[in-house]
Amino acid sequence: MKIGFIGTGVMGNAICLNLLKAGHDLVVYNRTKSKTDNLVAQGATWCESPKKVAENAELIFTMVGFPADVENVYFGEEGIFQAAVKDKYLVDMTTSKPALAQRIFREGEQQGAKVLDAPVSGGDLGAKNGTLTIMVGGDEAAYQDLEPVFKDFGKIVHYFGAAGAGQNTKMANQIMIAGTMTGMCEMLVYAKKAGLALESVLETVGAGSAANWSLSNYGPRILKDDYTPGFFSKHFLKDLRIALETAKEMKLELPATKEAEKLYETLVDERGLGDLGTQGLIKLWWN
Ligand code: NAP
């Protein structure tokens, strides 16, 4: 199947490499063109706009940064919906708003396209290793058609229901991560102050009932002073805001998630450290 991919950043680029490895014909577009160079060198074809990608592929994936980027890529002047998309598959993998996923679905339906929201979890390493978890909402028949393609870069793929259900599942995931990231940082801050050997603490805590993904993936990076982004702090703050905004619409209060939002706001908005990985949260305590 001829696949188009828009947004070849940390995640998109790694997913594209797995799609190429699986033998797919790939056309690509990214705002900063140089981030597609390695893909073109491996056989992908560059297109100069989202519209052109949509004209040249049967299945179009998008994985950009923020909901405003998603809007631009679908509804902008050179956007996907400016192309003839009848009978094409449109799949947004950006972590974005459930309501925006529903809007894209409605517009797609009007134009005869098959639309899915399919955000992922598993981080930069999951994208590189082709082991992502993929949470899908939208057109169920399209999901059945595309399951083999999802398996080219994902290990676990689940369909959750109508448009927006994939994004809602991802928000549930991020609410959990709010707890594991803040828990991991406060655990390390406490252990350091108590004078404990931090490598041993990570190993021991990570082997017991406090084991979790944030601890095992980001704890070691913190001890090596490695704050390069697997997952940008600015993107996690975006996710916390979407989760809290959507919860508010459901008349739900999530006080622990709200606290995590405040901490990441301090890191990103006040300290200007949004381009650090989410493990950079520790910098609120350690310089
Ligand atoms: P990223 O490296 O910033 O990638 C996003 C890419 O989209 C960038 O290359 C950006 O181009 C491009 N882009 C933005 N707006 C565009 C537009 N209008 N047209 C074309 N390209 C556009 O971020 P990422 O880490 O890959 O994350 C992408 C999404 O996946 C985010 O929503 C994030 O929350 C989510 N996510 C990330 C992870 C993770 O661990 N990294 C895990 C799960 C989900 P520029 O190069 O010009 O900025």
TrEMBL record:
Residues annotated as domain 6-phosphogluconate dehydrogenase NADP-binding: 2-161
Keyword Coiled coil on this protein? no
| Gene Ontology MF: a single term | NAD binding
Q: Which domain of life is it from?
A: Bacteria
**Residue ranges of domain 3-hydroxyisobutyrate dehydrogenase-like NAD-binding in the record:** 164-284
- Keyword Oxidoreductase recorded: yes
Catalytic residues at K170
Q: Which UniProt keywords apply?
A: NAD, Oxidoreductase
Q: Which InterPro entries match?
A: 6-PGluconate_DH-like_C_sf, 6PGD_dom2, 6PGDH_NADP-bd, HIBADH-like_NADP-bd, HIBADH-related, NAD(P)-bd_dom_sf
Gene3D superfamilies found in the cross-reference section: N-(1-d-carboxylethyl)-l-norvaline Dehydrogenase, domain 2, NAD(P)-binding Rossmann-like Domain
The similarity annotation says: Belongs to the HIBADH-related family.
| Stored PANTHER family | 3-HYDROXYISOBUTYRATE DEHYDROGENASE-LIKE 1, MITOCHONDRIAL-RELATED
Instruction: Quote the protein name from its UniProt record.
Output: 3-hydroxyisobutyrate dehydrogenase
Q: Which organism is it from?
A: Lactobacillus apis
Phylogenetic classification of the source organism? Bacteria, Bacillati, Bacillota, Bacilli, Lactobacillales
